[in-house]
Design brief:
alpha+beta; 12% strand; 13 helices; three-stranded antiparallel beta sheet; six-stranded antiparallel beta sheet; Replication initiation protein; RepSA
């Protein structure tokens, strides 16, 4: 029985396979280059490697070696992005449920280091006497001696500077006239007070004891979100776009990292110990940023909610209530006066220093914007070694391989319009005190120059792919695992070498500061794609795939051998225990 059709309408024809040998048939065949890239991604081979030329300094032999590009976004290189995600997961896993302090205290200073510091103190005393006596030639000589001693102090293995540089030697000092601006640290009247305790030098959470005598040390998972800007639908789009506060959403997104820093500062002062965290910032479906964090140790949920409600960040910038200029009518640069002026009156715009002085002189001045968290604060405990812990780690690192704008794809016209409205607001939102967008509001940014383009600032927060999140998306506290990302990479390589039985004898070792711990044997330089010793990209990819396939086979075989040896050892121990029991 055939399905009935409406009068005048014929049923859709059944698709017919293209004629063999036709263009449609040829276009249906997969491309070999695409298959090659798919296989490279399957085997974890970088699809856009960097050709580096390595020269042996002893023999003069040169060879071209492909190094991974190290991309963190899967739209650029999926294998490298996936490798970076696994590395971040290992970093979070290693520091989350630690029961010991990750970083030991510094070692005591040696006698040579103490003598250098003492000599530096004598030079400082002599320089002060020379300044008092106006012996400026001696001051110059002492400054040179101080510079040499400070270089020797660094070479001896001491961290940081003994003291700040003198004004005459400080080339990086701000050229803004007048004393440094200071804002009042008094809390806002509309923010609840928080207890302030002395922060202990510990990063490990509390250990609990069960009635049966067993101990356990759980940790936590926390999600922080921003406030609402208007009711939204399940797809994240506003119910009434005309009443949705896009301006506040843009400003909150730009200053969200500072709000997170203030939250951890307040939480540590409130709890009285150095709380450690590791997390990721990503957009919600409504395109507002929120953050997921793994916290070492446990903190009462009411404390987390109280600290989130009491945390805020004030932006003391000039007012942006009125946009004086548009992209069709912009201020112009006066070459003679070296300043930005109004296109009609030729009057200079307000400078950044004058604009801030106006705020300082007004006793009733209010910040141009205040960033706060929303009421939604999710927190729960996580036990170490459970599937819930692994699932949470995967959730925290779910979107770190994607651009911010690609985390939630806009599939409908309503979502696209919502994204466009937010992006248009971000394009005219100032991102820093040197942003060109300040010219739209009649204020010259700090250190203004003729190359500024209002509405076209190159800051990351103005890009469509970032949605206002211009800083780092991976946020990990300093004492989380006691290791840098380079240390975790080294640990992963060391594990593979140990499993395969490969030694590192005779290899060149380089520390984080780029200092070699052994004699440098090779020199590296970037090879050009058109160099005669650099082969085609496809040939290099095929060689890398073959090499990676052999490595994978050897690694799997080594894992099987290790598992078999472990099983044999366990069986031998069990048999020996059984024989001992029979003897008794």
């Amino acid at each position: 029985m055939t399905a009935p059709t409406l009068p005048g309408l014929e049923p859709a024809p059944t698709p017919v396979a293209p004629r063999p040998g036709s263009r449609a048939a040829r276009m249906a065949l997969p491309r070999s280059i695409d298959v090659l890239k798919d296989i490279a991604i399957e085997y974890g081979v970088c699809v856009r490697p960097l050709a580096m030329r390595r020269t042996d300094l002893d023999t003069g032999l040169t060879e071209v070696i492909d190094l991974p590009c190290g991309a963190t976004r899967e739209d650029k290189c999926p294998p490298c992005a996936k490798k970076n995600r696994r590395l971040r997961q290992a970093q979070i896993r290693e520091g989350w449920h630690r029961d010991d302090e990750p970083l030991p205290g510094p070692e005591p200073a040696t006698e040579a280091q103490k003598s250098l510091i003492l000599f530096r103190a004598h030079l400082e005393f002599s320089r002060d006497e020379a300044v008092r006596a106006a012996q400026w030639d001696q001051v110059t000589d002492l400054d040179e001696a101080i510079r040499e001693v400070e270089e020797a102090i660094t070479a001896e293995g001491l961290r940081g500077r003994v003291g700040p540089p003198h004004a005459s030697d400080d080339e990086d000092q701000d050229d803004e006239p007048g004393p440094r601006r200071k804002r009042s640290t008094k809390r806002r009247q509309d923010a609840p007070e928080l207890p302030r305790r002395k922060v202990e030098r510990r990063t490990v959470g509390k250990t609990y004891t069960a009635p049966d005598g067993s101990t356990y040390q759980p940790s936590m998972w926390l999600t922080l979100t921003l406030d609402s800007y208007g009711p939204v639908r399940p797809d994240g789009t506003p119910i009434n776009p005309a009443r949705y506060d896009y301006r506040r959403a843009a400003w909150d997104a730009v200053h969200f990292p500072r709000l997170l820093d203030r939250f951890w500062q307040n939480l540590r002062r409130c709890e009285g110990w150095n709380v450690q965290y590791a997390g990721c910032v990503e957009p919600q479906r409504r395109l507002a940023p929120h953050a997921h964090f793994a916290i070492r140790g446990t903190i009462p949920r009411n404390v987390l909610r109280t600290v989130a409600a009491a945390t805020y960040h004030q932006v003391w910038w000039p007012s942006v209530d009125v946009q004086r200029y548009t992209l069709d009518r912009l201020p112009i640069w006066d070459e003679q006066a070296a300043t930005w002026v109004d296109p009609d009156t030729r009057e200079p715009l307000t400078t950044w220093t004058v604009a801030l002085d106006t705020i300082d002189d007004d006793p009733d001045a209010e910040p141009v914007h205040v960033v706060r968290f929303g009421a939604q604060v999710d927190a729960r405990g996580v036990m170490p070694g459970t599937e819930d812990a692994e699932r949470t780690i995967r959730y925290v690192t779910k979107y770190i391989t994607k651009n911010t704008g690609d985390c939630h794809k806009a599939t409908t016209d309503r979502q696209r319009k919502h994204l466009d409205r937010l992006w248009q607001q971000l394009q005219v939102t100032p991102c820093t005190d040197r942003c060109a967008n300040w010219l739209l509001y009649g204020v010259q940014p700090k250190k203004a120059h003729a190359k500024l383009k209002p509405g076209r600032c190159k800051g990351k927060v103005h890009q469509r792919d970032t949605l206002g999140i211009g800083g780092r998306r991976i946020l990990i506290s300093r004492d989380w695992s006691g290791k840098t990302l380079a240390d975790h990479k080294h640990d992963a390589r060391a594990w593979v070498r140990a499993l395969l039985g490969v030694t590192t004898d005779g290899m060149q070792l380089v520390d984080d500061q780029g200092d070699t711990t052994e004699r440098v044997r090779h020199a590296w330089e970037l090879a050009r794609p058109d160099d005669p010793d650099v082969g085609p990209m496809t040939h290099r990819l095929m060689r890398s795939i073959s090499e990676r396939a052999r490595w994978r086979s050897e690694l799997l075989a080594a894992k099987d051998r290790a598992a078999q040896e472990s099983a044999d050892l366990s069986a031998t121990q069990h048999s020996a225990q059984h024989d001992g029991e029979e003897t008794q």
